[in-house]
Amino acid sequence: xxxxxxxxxxxxxxxxxxxxxxxxxxxxxxxxxxxxxxxxxxxxxxxxxxxxxxxxxxxxxxxxxxxxxxxxxxxxxxxxxxxxxxxxxxxxxxxxxxxxxxxxxxxxxxxxxxxxxxxxxxxxxxxxxxxxxxxxxxxxxxxxxxxxxxxxxxxxxxxxxxxxxxxxxxxxxxxxxxxxxxxxxxxxxxxxxxxxxxxxxxxxxxxxxxxxxxxxxxxxxxxxxxxxxxxxxxxxxxxxxxxxxxxxxxxxxxxxxxxxxxxxxxxxxxxxxxxxxxxxxxxxxxxxxxxxxxxxxxxxxxxxxxxxxxxxxxxxxxxxxxxxxxxxxxxxxxxxxxxxxxxxxxxxxxxxxxxxxxxxxxxxxxxxxxxxxxxxxxxxxxxxxxxxxxxxxxxxxxxxxx
Length: 402
Prior knowledge:
Layout: H1 4-12, E1 22-26, H2 31-44, E2 49-52, E3 64-66, E4 69-70, H3 73-92, H4 102-117, E5 121-125, E6 142-145, H5 153-156, H6 160-167, E7 177-179, H7 184-197, E8 201-203, E9 208-215, E10 218-225, E11 228-234, H8 239-255, H9 259-267, E12 276-279, E13 283-287, H10 292-305, E14 311-316, H11 323-330, E15 336-339, H12 350-357, E16 363-364, H13 368-375, E17 383-388, H14 390-400
Parallel strand pairs: 1-5, 1-6, 2-5, 6-7, 7-8, 13-17, 14-15, 14-17, 15-16
Antiparallel strand pairs: 2-3, 3-4, 9-10, 10-11, 12-13
């Protein structure tokens, strides 16, 4: 782990990242949604945007977007060839210790594409952590840190403070930052680092969601804060998306984006696979609730907005996820629980999930298509959630969205 390899590679590629303006976003939860709000609002303000996010749901090209549109397979392939060939040359000359990782390669490709396209502002999401993340070679115009929780403990640490320290690694000397509402122990770490590097901080907590109305398909409210009053219609579902929208409002206010563009941009935001309704009668939702905070947000949404309905839940997870925390939050809410496995070598099998969680009433399936066949028995007034791994959500989206 480290930044030496990607720094050397980007230098050999002509340092394309040095010609770009960045909003750098780190955090445990809400990173992708917040990035989507930011990018859409910047585009509404007339900015030619780049958006770099991970993981993808269906195709890798989704990770690199210009003006809201994924790059073409041809452009993606050309960028890969350039990065791969330069990496091979550096390895052969002894200037690189090994081939860049998958994420380092994609990050380098994104910088090349954004620079070539003349993108004006890039919204750049970290992959994992922050301090040693391959995206952390940029000098951003603004850093944004979304809520910090326990995840990727093997790499980032087992406590909130340790994880917050890694996320705080994106803060740069003298560059402004925007912080979401945080746990006190995380906020203390972030604030201390901001003082150390002289980064002026704006807080999403300084913005309120007044006249808030939430339903099963989104929310509307007035964001009231240091930048005035901004009417918001949020098409992303759940209470947590209100908080993510307020983080975006905070960041956009720091950047001086006009309130009208913020309103229009947030209203036009799409972020697939995060409490996304893809079918009706019965309603079918896709949600990558792959850690404790995500599971808690999904559970809250089900309890508050689908009370009294028969809930069908299709669940699969990767082996690095803490089923001991996630399962008790979600499984009791399911009238019909179907355990399955995404088509990934690192996934738990359905039988392993049952063994770990002790959930004896669940139906077991070997693959998502089998699970979808069972869920197809749901009554039109029921509600179906396909959740857990984002890989599983991606597979479901490929199967259900035409």
